[in-house]
């Protein structure tokens, strides 16, 4: 029996998480696995109900679960709260930190049937299969932050970008290990021409590379990496980078696959792993049955593979998603001429039918 904590959160979160639950239940039935779900509040929803975006009960539930599935947090309603009460800074970041989830795996793969769905030319993206590893508990996100009033008027805002040798080494090691499981190529992305933290990053990665002589290591500056991801994304296999660079590059990479609604993620490194789509709460389409549930459903597949070692079950979900896309079913974000447009729930129904 696998205990899964569900944190739907805000915006489209409460629409997409139940879709992944239905898929997990169908997989459980088919392969005779038992999943037990327990739901907790997070983000704006938690703030509204309890006055805090990350209630202690939520953290406790996560700690006694075998894995966590999160929707998304945040939205205009909570944007002007004090920083420590905002869903992003008051809940999501502290949750990642508290659970020790220092690495975020964000695979960007182009499904054959979506090769012409990207805003990029088909031959540039078709067959794309890259793995971006984003450091998740360091960098600017977790540095010191403060503001001060200036004597001449106005204010100064300060944040620090900090990384230690150990923080870089553990995530870089994951990059090398991942490269070994794939094409033995690792691209470390930094800004070592300017940032001191990136100079340390590069030194640590270089040092670690001695333990992995079989892996071909390269370095690229982040500005060039952004350009190369659009110019020729298939040159990459595994990429590893710091927190904020990874945040930005993976939203960019998601568009290579057709939509940000397609990209799943796994946050690992602690006792319990957290799975979530890379997109946010999409307030512009929330509550309208428009959200693409596939990123969340594929995050559930990652959970089965990474946390539970259920490879066959994970593949069954991925195959069902591929097959539904091949049959021409689309949500609005990946809609193409001549295809059948489905809502969030109907897309899930189609995937369930395929699974059973
Ligand atoms: P977003 O990812 O929520 O939305 C960006 C665009 O992509 C929007 O047009 C949205 O409609 C679309 N989109 C996103 N997911 C989609 C899906 N599954 N199907 C179809 N279309 C989809 O980013 P944003 O608008 O910058 O942020 C909105 C809120 O979400 C903010 O409060 C932000 O802080 C928060 N956010 C949370 C997370 C998270 O919880 N992990 C991640 C990113 C942003
Ligand atoms: C993500 C999001 C978060 C991040 C925000 C909401 C804090 O953009 O999960 O990619 O920047 O990590
Ligand atoms: Mn992001």
Automatic annotation (TrEMBL):
InterPro entries in the cross-refs: IsoCit/isopropylmalate_DH_CS, IsoPropMal-DH-like_dom, Isopropylmalate_DH
GO biological process: L-leucine biosynthetic process
Subcellular location: Cytoplasm
Broad class of where this protein is predominantly found: cytoplasm
Positions contributing to substrate binding: 96, 106, 134, 223
Catalytic activity, as annotated: (2R,3S)-3-isopropylmalate + NAD(+) = 4-methyl-2-oxopentanoate + CO2 + NADH
Pathway: Amino-acid biosynthesis; L-leucine biosynthesis; L-leucine from 3-methyl-2-oxobutanoate: step 3/4
Keywords, alphabetical: Amino-acid biosynthesis, Branched-chain amino acid biosynthesis, Cytoplasm, Leucine biosynthesis, Magnesium, Manganese, Metal-binding, NAD, Oxidoreductase
Entry binding sites for NAD(+): 75-88, 280-292
Signal peptide: none
A single MF term (Gene Ontology): magnesium ion binding
Principal EC category: oxidoreductase
Cofactor(s) the record lists: Mn(2+); Mg(2+)
Site feature: Important for catalysis: 141, 191
Residues the record lists as binding Mg(2+): 223, 247, 251
GO cellular component, one term: cytosol
Family statement drawn from the similarity comment of this UniProt entry: Belongs to the isocitrate and isopropylmalate dehydrogenases family. LeuB type 1 subfamily.
Function, in words: Catalyzes the oxidation of 3-carboxy-2-hydroxy-4-methylpentanoate (3-isopropylmalate) to 3-carboxy-4-methyl-2-oxopentanoate. The product decarboxylates to 4-methyl-2 oxopentanoate.
Protein name listed in UniProt: 3-isopropylmalate dehydrogenase
């Amino acid at each position: 029996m696998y205990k899964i904590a569900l944190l739907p959160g805000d915006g489209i979160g409460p629409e997409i998480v139940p879709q992944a639950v239905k898929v997990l239940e169908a997989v459980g039935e088919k392969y005779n696995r038992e999943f037990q779900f327990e739901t907790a509040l997070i983000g704006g929803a938690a703030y509204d109900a309890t006055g805090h975006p990350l209630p202690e009960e939520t953290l406790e539930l996560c700690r006694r679960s075998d894995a966590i599935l999160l929707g998304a947090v945040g939205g205009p309603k909570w944007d002007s709260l004090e920083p420590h009460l905002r869903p992003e800074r008051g809940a999501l970041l502290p949750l990642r930190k508290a659970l020790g989830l220092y690495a975020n795996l964000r695979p960007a793969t182009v499904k054959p049937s979506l090769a012409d769905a990207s805003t990029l030319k088909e031959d540039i993206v078709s067959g794309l299969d890259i793995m971006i590893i984003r450091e998740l508990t360091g960098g600017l996100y977790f540095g010191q932050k403060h503001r001060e009033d200036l004597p001449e008027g106005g204010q100064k805002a300060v944040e620090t970008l900090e990384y230690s040798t150990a923080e870089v080494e553990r995530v870089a090691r994951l990059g090398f290990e991942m490269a070994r499981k794939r094409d033995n190529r690792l691209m470390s992305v930094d800004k070592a021409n300017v940032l001191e933290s990136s100079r340390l990053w590069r030194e640590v990665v270089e040092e670690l590379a001695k333990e992995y002589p079989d892996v071909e290591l390269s370095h690229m500056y982040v500005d060039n990496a952004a350009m190369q991801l659009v110019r020729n994304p298939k040159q990459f296999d595994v990429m590893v980078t710091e927190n904020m660079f990874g945040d930005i590059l993976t939203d960019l990479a998601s568009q290579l696959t057709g939509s940000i609604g397609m990209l799943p993620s796994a946050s690992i490194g602690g006792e319990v792993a957290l799975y979530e789509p890379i997109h946010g709460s999409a307030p512009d389409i929330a509550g309208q049955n428009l959200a693409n549930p596939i990123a969340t459903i594929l995050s559930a597949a990652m959970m089965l593979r990474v946390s539970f070692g259920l490879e066959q079950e994970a593949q069954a979900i991925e195959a069902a998603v591929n097959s539904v896309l091949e049959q021409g079913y689309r949500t609005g974000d990946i809609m193409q001429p001549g295809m059948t447009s489905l809502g969030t729930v109907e897309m899930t129904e189609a995937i369930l039918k395929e699974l059973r």
